Amino acid sequence: MGHFGSARIFKRNCAGEEKRVGTRTVVVGHRPVSEADAYVAQKFCDNRIVSSKYTVWNFLPKNLFEQFRRIANFYFLIIFLVQVIVDTPTSPVTSGLPLFFVITVTAIKQGYEDWLRHRADNEVNKSNVFIIENAKQVQKESEKIKVGDIVEVKADETFPCDLIFLASSSTDGTCYVTTASLDGESNFKTHYAVRDTTVLCTDEAIDSLTATIECEQPQPDLYKFVGRIIMYRSNQEPVARSLGPENLLLKGATLKNTKKIYGVAVYTGMETKMALNYQGKSQKRSAVEKSINAFLIVYLCILLSKATVCTTLKYVWQSNPFNDEPWYNEKTKKERETFKVNGFVFHSVCSSVILSYICKWQGDFLHQGKVDFGPVEFVFTDKTGTLTENSMEFIECCIDGHKYKDCISEVDGYSQTDGPLKYYGKAEKSREELFLRALCLCHTVRIKQADQVDGLIGHPECKNTYISSSPDEIALVKGAEKYGFTFLGLENDFMKIRNQKNETEMYQLLHTLNFDPVRRRMSVIVRTTSGKLLLFCKGADSSIFPRVQQEEIQQTKVHVDRNAMDGYRTLCVAFKELTQKEYDRIDRQLNEAKMALQDREEKMAKVFEDTEADMHLIGATAVEDRLQEQSAETIEALHAAGMKVWVLTGDKMETAKSTCYACRLFQTSTELLELTARVVGESERKEDRLHELLMDYHKRLIQDVPKPRGSLKRSWTLSQDYGLIIDGSTLSLILNPSQDSSSSHYKNIFLQICLKCTAVLCCRMAPLQKAQIVRMVKNTKGSPITLSVGDGANDVSMILEAHVGIGKEGRQAARNSDYAVPKFKHLRKLLLAHGHLYYVRIAHLVQYFFYKNLCFILPQFLYQFFCGFSQQPLYDAAYLTMYNICFTSLPILAYSLLEQGWMGLSTLSALLVQDTIHWGGLSQCTCPVFGNWTFGTIVFTVLVFTVTLKLALDTRFWTWMNHFVIWGSLAFYVFFSFFWGGVIWPFLKQQRMYFVFAHMLTSVSTWLAIILLIFISLFPEILLIVLKSIKERSHQVRNKMKYYQKHHHLSY
């Protein structure tokens, strides 16, 4: 029978596994199963990665659309169009030039950033890969890989797409990869080739493979994959093998310690798991920038009200014909029929809009424009590699209730007993050996062979390196080695160990029951050389104790509880002996479950549950996951500052929980509330059970808590002592409830519970779930400021979602973050020191800009009362344009970057006093004025010097840059005024400013008026600074006196 007939029979015999929606079929090597049928390639997406935002064709319209979505930009555009269309007193250049300048610079900046993304994409898409075609290696660009291509990847290369592992240079069909750029894990992970393809380790052999792969459609979960491969051989029945996450090599991971591997592409381009977990980089906007928009609206309303008042008063003034049309300036018929709004508002409001741009550029200078450090309320952090060093150390173990902390002697051993169990001398020798054999066999650790140097023989004492996806497994194997049992590696499905007598023991590895977060344990089934079948199991105490003999628990539980209180990660070890009949049943059930495409996890879980029952407890281990330096102190400092810290990790609950205790996120007095798959269950009633738990927790935390008297800010730090633990599967039920359930309100209840807890731990989180958590908190009432910190690609979505994103230096997360730090401890200084300074600076920046622009506009408003509301501008058009761009922008920019002292007096507090004195003094000025432009120039000179010197008074931390920009800005204003009025400009119709500034300064009265007005305007500020300084000094003197009196009294 040919391949085609075999395939039809095979699929017909797989009851209930016919092609379903949500699966795809991949033809390996594009080689059809039946030679009689023409092969029609399926259409899948190509392997191009696109992270850029613009193209050459859409850059201009898309960028302009995004920029004009900002209120400030749009408002400026409207003003410019009004000045172009309507007859206004000022030229459209007044508003058009700043608008063009800002839009152009922003477009260039964003275009350059996107060009960098294009370049990075091209580096990936144009990288060279090797495809096996017709038994030969063909070099292609990565973007040309198609689903079904057989790809060869060599050591230290990154996988170009998601591949099903077929064969490697290792005879056992394994390879080692690092996924630091995907999930932050720096440990080596072991992946396995399909059993029947491991021998196809050459180009010719792998090209001879005829097979199809049936698997699920692309989905973002990094830890799940369900599929099967069907291999066809001539004149033989098709052979089917199951495929799981251990067979899938993810794009972005790197091949290590393996010369080469062959894999078939199943997901390419934007359908790879890495791409599906990438959340597009949005344009973040700080809370200050959003508040500026609100201020601009208020400012616009103020200006429109002024325009309304002036327009009304203008028509009141014009009601007298003599006032409206003097004999020397009669109106034309067209002017009489035209209605005009008082136009001073148009040229005055334009200048204030520069505020938003200066704020934005100031923020850009401070690392990507994020200035939300000061008011951060929620900190979301990854665990592995962020809080911890991801390095575990074996501390001690317990065998039959006896504590072993030092090495066991080969003769009689050494042990210590716990508490009431002192009558146990030590565990029996056979039990000690059984426990240590369990540690050597029950794991997924592999051996990295020591490097060989040409011409030299390896030193016999040279030790091999252990490799595993879980660092605690390595710690346990090293712990067993301390006590005399050494794991020597896996070869041809046989595990080799060396015992205390230096004898080599061989165990055939029959099945590995991998760890999962629901079972919280793992097991192996091995066969000894004598034919005995043994099952070894290790896992959390809550998972092991219900499955062992109850009389064996108490003697080990004492040890486990004490280590848990010390913050160690504890694991219990059990075993049982299987008969051949029991093993045959387990083997058949496991193979059937592994072949299922539908409900595979549920079927395997049932087999695991039946297999891991009626075991015998041997002992327990204690492993310490080393925290990064000062991680605990940093979290305590953040808590003391009123911030809530949430840990979002893809790690197992037990590991994450013990880490949270070690870093003091959870205290020993913290009552933990658990919403995990273990508590909710896997039955059909799990949503009902979830509802019961949510309502119970809500009642305990919110409904039953008496309301505190008075308003105690951040009362949770004093009255609440709850912690919440939730896993990814339960979070999915809450955020994505089933259509037929009445659980739409789960999210609100869950959020209320979270906000009442002092700390929250989210474990087994997929990358997008991390972003969902951040988004959920960010969108709560009050819009709290959020911060995310992580180190891996799995943290990128979380980092991009938060208001402030922080990545670990040198990692993919850092490339997508707003800031990068080398260690978690630096978060303390970044938030509590720099964050405070940034927020003080930006607050003063906003106040100062509105202050100086209101000072700028108020004289023009008052001037209308003296010119008959005729729209006569007080300032020259050049001064209107240059005021915010050149004359007053650099001093506040330098202040907002460099100031390290406390902001003194609120800049708005003295506004009305200063402006009233300012205008009143000018109105009484007796100096010679030769026209309205001279008067306007005097006003503008006093204005520029007053607002600049006001900032100088507020500056507490002087640098050379402050001196340069403050005094340089004033000098530039004087130079520009001389230059602008000293030349007859051919492009101007009227030379109204010619020689005005120079002539103005020839009057002594003018000098006196300018100096006196500046001094009188700043006198309230100077007086308050002096009084404040006297008060501070007197307070210091009193403190010194108290200190002296106290110590002087003690000396007697």
From TrEMBL:
Its EC number is 7.6.2.1. Residues 576-603 form a coiled coil. The keyword Endoplasmic reticulum applies. ATP binds at residues 382-384, 473, 515, 538, 569, 649-651, 764, 770, 794-795. Mg(2+) binds at residues 382, 384, 791, 795. Its main location: membrane. It is found in: Cell membrane; Early endosome; Endoplasmic reticulum membrane; Membrane. GO terms for biological process: phospholipid translocation. Its cofactor is Mg(2+). Residues 126-255 form the P-type ATPase A domain. Residues 814-900, 928-1029 form the P-type ATPase C-terminal domain. It catalyses: ATP + H2O + phospholipidSide 1 = ADP + phosphate + phospholipidSide 2; a 1,2-diacyl-sn-glycero-3-phosphoethanolamine(out) + ATP + H2O = a 1,2-diacyl-sn-glycero-3-phosphoethanolamine(in) + ADP + phosphate + H(+); a 1,2-diacyl-sn-glycero-3-phospho-L-serine(out) + ATP + H2O = a 1,2-diacyl-sn-glycero-3-phospho-L-serine(in) + ADP + phosphate + H(+). It is a multi-pass membrane protein. It is an enzyme of class 7 (translocase). Belongs to the cation transport ATPase (P-type) (TC 3.A.3) family. Type IV subfamily. This is Phospholipid-transporting ATPase.
